[in-house]
Amino acid sequence: MHELSVAQEILEIVNQYFPDPKPNTVKSVKVKVGKLSNILADSLSFCFEAITSDTPLSSAKLEIIETPVRIICTVCNKESEIDPPIFACPSCGNNQIRIVSGTDLWVDEIELFDEIPEDK
Amino acid sequence: MSVITIERKVLEKNDAIAQQNREVFKKKNLFTMNLVSSPGSGKTSLIEKTIHHTKNKFNVAVIEGDVQTSLDAERVAAYGVPVVQIVTQGACHLEAGLVKDAYRQIEKNDFEVLFIENVGNLVCPAGYDLGEDLKVVIVSTTEGDDKPLKYPAMFRNASALIINKTDLIPYVNCSLETLMKNALSINLSLKIFKTSCTNDEGIAEWCEWIESKIKR
Fold it and tell me: For chain B, which residues lie within 8 Å of any Cβ of chain A, measuring from their own Cβ?
């Protein structure tokens, strides 16, 4: 539901690296979206495209990598992946677990075009 | 191929302001709760009941968040406590910056407990730290017993669960036992209260818990 404001935060981070970008400089922005972050990938891409269209960053594609929810079991100490809404250790079944990843949103990297392509 | 490594949290700006809020609240020895729920679960009623029941024990201030209107702030103001209304103009959640600005308007008052009533929504407020001590999720019996499974992030991030409108259980299709089982399957450490703002069930226990959290 708040994908637009998240897209704006991503754009703000990109703008810090390219305060005055030339057209066709940025090829893609790689973003990690945790499975438990309540963010819909398609909707986030749509919002990012909408706010960058008609700007020098319109060439930038948002590349979304969905990251799984990983936990450490506080009973058997094993680290594993879980599939919400089941919040239990897949190894021993205990639900005394600590989530270690999969709840956050990260801007991972920005990929640039090697050469500035001709205008399409 | 040229790649710039970024590795920064998308919501880092919000998180930084939330941390500033947390430090400000800590300096004032405040116990701060972020109340989250779907619309109509009884967040404002619970705040009203809490103020009424604890007026001789501790002082409360309230930050209200809504998409539109100041109706909630008007209700709470009738109890004579400091209150600020944040109108988000369509935004589905409160952000730390909004809370920071709202808090400035009430900080000169004398209080030990701060309620931040989030926008009614079981999805988006889960992702935004406001600087609170803990999140309290409220679910009313009329919403059914499956809500924890449908909105796991919210229940996972909360420290306490209030099951409100227990007086309506005879009339609705909601099993308290199933609701609690579902909630605990997502978050075993949830402290659960069963309340009714109509017949006052559980209100005393809830108020005592808040009192035990006050930093004096």
Answer: 1-14, 91-93, 121, 123-124, 126-127, 148-150, 152-153, 156, 184-188
Mark yes or no for CB contact A110/B4 under 8 Å. Answer: yes
Residue A116 reports pLDDT greater than 70 = no
Residue in A31, A38, A106 closest to B153 by CB = A38
**From the CA of A54, how many Å to the nearest CA of chain B?**
23
B43-54 and B203-213 helices, crossing angle to 10°: 70
Query: Which chain B residues are within 8 Å of A5, Cβ to Cβ?
Result: 91
Q: State whether B9 and A105 contact (CB < 8 Å).
A: yes
Average pLDDT over residues A83-95: 94
What is the set of domains in chain B, with CATH numbers?
A: 12-213 (3.40.50.300)
Q: In what side-by-side order are the strands of the sheet with B83-87? A: B83-87, B60-66, B113-117, B31-37, B134-140, B160-164, B191-194
Pairwise CB contact (< 8 Å): B121 & A1: yes
pLDDT digits (tens, 9 = 90+) for B49-76: 999 999 999 999 999 999 999 999 999 9
A120 occurs within a structural domain: no
Q: What range does the domain containing A87 cover?
A: 3-112
Q: Which residues contact A31 (CB under 8 A, 6 or more apart)?
A: A10, A44, A62, A63, A64, A65, A105, A106, A107, A108, B10
For B44, the token pair is 């404002």
The answer, yes or no, to whether residue B215 has pLDDT greater than 80, is no
* For range B121-142, the mean pLDDT: 97
For an interface test with A, which of B1, B10, B145 has the most A Cβ atoms less than 10 Å from its Cβ?
B10
Which CATH number goes with the domain that contains A63? 3.30.2320.80
Q: Is residue A117 part of a domain?
A: no
